[in-house]
């Protein structure tokens, strides 16, 4: 082993892809062993008919290797540090910090390794691609060798060398009348544009080819009147969706493609190198380019350059068999990886379009290869998927020869791009061109119909006639003088047309039509959008109005809520006040609403009534409503409903009367107790009135003790004898303004009342502790049959209490009320089950719940019994006794029958009082 040569690395695995095929050595066969007939040589002269080469010195090359030629050019390593990727738009998602660090370190690595290359040129036909050191595992170095290239141009290869090796043969064939195509393929920034166009100082393949063409053709141009035409156009995407063609040599720009023919493409005749190069510069300026992370001037379109050789004329006669070759050089847009380029938005869409086009291009070639390998496999029509492949259909179907120049970047950071390119494109070199069209046959029109001449013939009638003449002339014999003349005329006309600007006129017309059409389309589109916007605007307005109304509603609801809250707070405060056992009689409350302090007994009565009414109002605010109604026919009906807003207390609470030492007449735990007490008290009063005969009614006045609280009872329109009487009884407790309305209504006919029988009754209580006051309101005694109505309502409050007393009172009628009772003797303690608690329904008619108040309740049996007993209560005895004791008041002489229950109740009250006294 040579000591100088280092031993192969054991960890290196060399994968040789597409190794260069070497023909096996033909086994030497001794002719003697076989009796073979003499095989005639291949009839080259028959297959390749003698042509008239433009340059006689150029020998006709024999059909050698007919495979597709694939060249590889490696651009030099970038001396400047790799362009750092532009600041990416910040992702909204949180990023993995590990990844971030890895990316940062990767960037550092890539920056630091700009000097090392991942690809090395083995020989003129093969390269080795090595994975970057940072990628492979410690003991496993992976490298791949790609071979079989027509030629590999290292990074130091000059443009001229590339031209000499790669393009010159093509140009020579073109000049001999063969069509040829060269496409530059490779990742973005690998040097495709540099190779194709080059720079003014370092011209690329096209300028060099043009120089070659004119250099070679010049001596013969005058003789053969050879003319070349050049057209340059690009295929780019419109927002990544539709493909569009742009003519880079005309001002109009847009052109169209029908099948494989480009319509409206301007072909500019070129007669020298300078003219051609100026056209190229013009096209390069118009070409779509953009800056990406990988290339500061990245091509965003597929650029196609055609140089066409117009058939030479022979004495003014078109020779249909003359050479009409086209040399096509294509600068494809570079394949892009999103991660590398960092493209976004429109750039990304362009990138997708470019990659798609390249993919279709590759699919076509792969399909051709597979079809050639296995004829059973049909040739896929991938070419239909893009404009580029449609245009290059003949080349991609193997009918014309083409060459590929792969451009690669050698940097380690470009490993993926280069590897992808080599893996993708190296198989293409196996494509064979066995069925290539003879180059000296006039090619199909489709590639050249885009020329100005053919377009022009359709435009003018003169051209139409010329075309017809031409067609005719092709089928007539040259002996016909007429046809010769016509041909001459046709040729002349062609010249004129070529010279004139009718081509541009046609394209201008087309352009205007297109722009007009697009304008109309845009107008309609704008109208539609405008209508949609209008609808949305109207909907928006409606929505705004709804929002406003909703806001108002919310405001109102808030106000209501606040009101309710304040009411609730007031109610709570009242309840707390009641719980304290002290029910204050605050005269200021009355005075605040314009009530004067009482000064005498009559004023006291009025004061009591007013206080009661105010209390009713307060009660209404406290959402208590108690109504007791009595129907004569159906028996006593009690309807008590309490709506209690305080949600903290849901249980029914027992009734309790205030203790004698308290200044208040009633000790009420909450409003409901007051109501119940008042209700029961009303029953007592009602029984009293029941027990009274109308004639025995007397006016009674009860003195009120200044020191003791007063329970005022207002009774109006009393009549015990009439069944249809109406009695309204109001019980009020003026001290704490928690009024209770207990109303018993009887319809009382006017004649049933006797003014003389009415009396004012008052009860004085001997004890000093408490006084039960009865206030009698004399509402009206002068006017007969008049209707008095007292109504208090608070319309804005749903919980308002309405107190209404409607009476029809005869003129003689005196309304009196009298009923006093010592609260200390009040047997109707809430704990007394026999009254209200014995029967579960004893708390009868008292519905303490949050549900809306029910208007009427039937009196429960125990209450009914009590009422009945009380109705028969003989007050006379007691009143007489009271009279006897105090001698201050006189009661009616008439003594109705009292029931035992009433008597027992009275006795019970008395007992209790005596107990208390003790
Ligand atoms: N062989 C080379 N020698 C010197 N410079 C080169 C070579 N190849 C490419 N370059 C430089 O690299 C840069 C990118 O090259 P170019 O624009 O030709 O890439 P590209 O493959 O056409 O990229 P894209 O597909 O994005 O258009 C250019 O500035 C060019 O001058």
From TrEMBL:
Q: Which Gene3D superfamilies match?
A: Kinesin motor domain
Coiled coil location: 533-574
Record GO cellular component, one term: microtubule
Example of a GO MF term:
microtubule motor activity
Q: Where does ATP bind?
A: 186-193
Q: Which InterPro entries match?
A: Kinesin-like_fam (IPR027640), Kinesin_motor_dom (IPR001752), Kinesin_motor_dom_sf (IPR036961), P-loop_NTPase (IPR027417)
Low complexity bias spans:
98-109
Any single Pfam family the record assigns to this protein? Kinesin
Disordered: where is this region? 1-64, 81-109, 761-797, 817-866, 881-902
Q: Would the keyword Coiled coil turn up in this protein's UniProt record?
A: yes
Quick check: keyword DNA repair in the entry? no
Q: Name one GO biological process term.
A: microtubule-based movement
Residue spans of biased composition, Basic and acidic residues class: 780-797, 831-850
Q: Where is this chain compositionally biased, Pro residues type? A: 1-10
Give all residue intervals belonging to the Kinesin motor domain: 67-431
Keywords for the protein's UniProt record, in alphabetical order: ATP-binding, Coiled coil, Microtubule, Motor protein, Nucleotide-binding
Protein family: Belongs to the TRAFAC class myosin-kinesin ATPase superfamily. Kinesin family.
Q: Do you know which PANTHER family this protein is assigned to?
A: KINESIN-LIKE PROTEIN SUBITO, KINESIN-RELATED
Q: What is this protein called?
A: Kinesin motor domain-containing protein
Organism, as annotated: Sphenostylis stenocarpa
């Amino acid at each position: 082993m040579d000591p100088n040569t280092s031993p192969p690395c054991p960890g290196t695995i060399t994968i040789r892809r597409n190794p260069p095929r070497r023909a096996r050595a033909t086994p030497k066969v001794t002719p003697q062993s076989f009796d073979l007939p003499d095989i005639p040589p291949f009839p080259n002269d028959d297959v390749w008919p003698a042509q008239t080469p433009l340059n006689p010195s150029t020998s006709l090359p024999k059909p050698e290797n007919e495979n597709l030629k694939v060249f590889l050019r490696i651009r030099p390593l970038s001396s400047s540090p790799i362009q750092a990727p532009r600041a990416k738009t910040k992702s909204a998602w949180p990023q993995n910090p590990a990844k971030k660090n890895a990316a940062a370190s990767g960037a550092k690595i890539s920056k630091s390794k700009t000097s090392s290359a991942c690809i090395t040129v083995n020989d003129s036909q093969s390269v080795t691609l090595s994975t970057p050191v940072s990628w492979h595992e410690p003991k496993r170095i992976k490298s791949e060798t790609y071979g079989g290239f027509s030629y590999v141009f290292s990074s130091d290869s000059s443009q001229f060398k590339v031209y000499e090796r790669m393009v010159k043969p093509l140009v020579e064939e073109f000049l001999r009348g063969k069509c040829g195509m060269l496409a530059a393929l490779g990742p973005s920034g690998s040097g495709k544009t540099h190779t194709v166009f080059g720079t003014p100082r370092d011209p690329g393949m096209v300028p060099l080819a043009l120089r070659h063409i004119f250099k070679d053709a010049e001596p013969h141009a005058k003789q053969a009147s050879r003319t070349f035409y050049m057209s340059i156009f690009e295929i780019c995407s419109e927002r990544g969706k539709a493909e569009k063609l742009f003519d880079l040599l005309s001002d109009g720009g847009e052109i169209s493609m029908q099948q494989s023919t480009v319509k409206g493409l301007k072909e500019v005749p070129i007669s020298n190198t300078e003219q051609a190069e100026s056209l190229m510069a013009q096209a390069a300026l118009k070409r779509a380019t953009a800056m990406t992370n990988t290339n500061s001037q990245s091509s965003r379109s597929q650029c196609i350059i055609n140089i066409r050789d117009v058939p030479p004329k022979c004495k003014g006669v078109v020779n249909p068999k003359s050479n009409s070759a086209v040399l096509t050089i294509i600068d494809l847009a570079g394949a892009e990886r999103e991660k590398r380029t960092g493209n976004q938005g429109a750039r990304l869409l362009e990138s997708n379009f470019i990659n798609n086009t390249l993919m279709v291009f590759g699919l076509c070639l792969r399909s051709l290869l597979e079809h050639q390998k296995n004829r059973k496999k049909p040739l896929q029509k991938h070419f239909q998927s893009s404009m580029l492949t449609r245009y290059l259909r003949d080349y991609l179907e193997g009918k014309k020869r083409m060459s590929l120049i792969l451009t690669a970047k050698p940097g380690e950071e470009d490993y993926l791009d280069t590897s992808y390119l080599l893996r993708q494109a190296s198989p293409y070199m196996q494509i064979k061109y066995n069925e290539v069209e003879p180059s000296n046959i006039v090619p199909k029109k489709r590639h050249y119909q885009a020329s100005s001449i053919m377009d022009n013939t359709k435009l003018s009638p003169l051209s139409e006639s010329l075309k017809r003449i031409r067609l005719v002339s092709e089928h007539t014999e040259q002996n016909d003088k007429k046809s010769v003349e016509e041909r001459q005329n046709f040729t002349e006309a062609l010249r004129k047309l070529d010279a004139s600007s009718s081509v541009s006129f046609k394209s201008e017309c087309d352009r205007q039509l297109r722009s007009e059409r697009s304008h109309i389309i845009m107008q309609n589109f704008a109208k539609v959008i405008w209508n949609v916007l209008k609808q949305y605007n109207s909907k928006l307005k409606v929505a705004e109005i709804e929002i406003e109304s909703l806001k108002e509603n919310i405001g109102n609801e808030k106000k209501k809520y606040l009101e309710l809250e304040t009411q609730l707070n007031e109610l709570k405060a009242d309840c707390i006040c009641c719980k304290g056992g002290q029910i204050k009689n605050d005269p200021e409350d009355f005075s605040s609403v314009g009530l004067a302090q009482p000064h005498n007994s009559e004023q006291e009565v009025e004061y009591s009534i007013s206080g009661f009414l105010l209390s009713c109002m307060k009660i209404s605010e406290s959402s208590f409503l108690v109504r007791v109604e009595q129907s004569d026919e159906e028996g006593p009906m009690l309807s008590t409903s309490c709506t209690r807003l305080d949600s903290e207390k849901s249980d029914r609470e027992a009734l309790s009367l205030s203790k004698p030492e308290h200044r208040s007449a009633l000790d009420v735990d909450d409003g409901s107790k007051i109501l119940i007490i008042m209700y029961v008290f009303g029953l007592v009063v009602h029984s009293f009135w029941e027990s009274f005969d109308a004639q025995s009614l007397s006016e009674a006045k009860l003195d009120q003790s200044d020191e003791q609280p007063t329970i005022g009872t207002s009774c109006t329109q009393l009549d015990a004898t009439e069944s249809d009487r109406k009695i309204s009884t109001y019980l009020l407790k003026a001290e704490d303004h928690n009024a209770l309305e207990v109303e018993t209504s009887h319809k009382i006919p006017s004649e049933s009342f006797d003014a003389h029988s009415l009396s004012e009754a008052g009860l004085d209580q001997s004890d000093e502790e408490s006084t039960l006051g009865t206030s009698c309101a004399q509402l009206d005694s002068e006017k007969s049959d008049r209707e008095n109505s007292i109504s208090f309502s608070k319309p804005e409050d749903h919980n308002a209490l309405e107190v209404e007393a409607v009476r029809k009172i005869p003129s003689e009628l005196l309304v009196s009320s009298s009923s006093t009772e010592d609260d200390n003797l009040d047997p109707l303690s809430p704990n007394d089950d026999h009254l209200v608690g014995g029967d579960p329904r004893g708390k009868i008619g008292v519905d303490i719940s949050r549900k809306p108040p029910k208007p009427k309740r039937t009196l429960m049996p125990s209450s009914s019994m009590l009422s009945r007993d009380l109705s028969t209560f003989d007050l006379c005895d007691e009143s007489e006794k009271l009279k006897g004791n105090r001698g201050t008041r006189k009661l009616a002489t008439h003594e109705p029958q009292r029931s035992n229950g009433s008597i027992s109740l009275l006795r019970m009250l008395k007992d209790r009082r005596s107990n208390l006294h003790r």
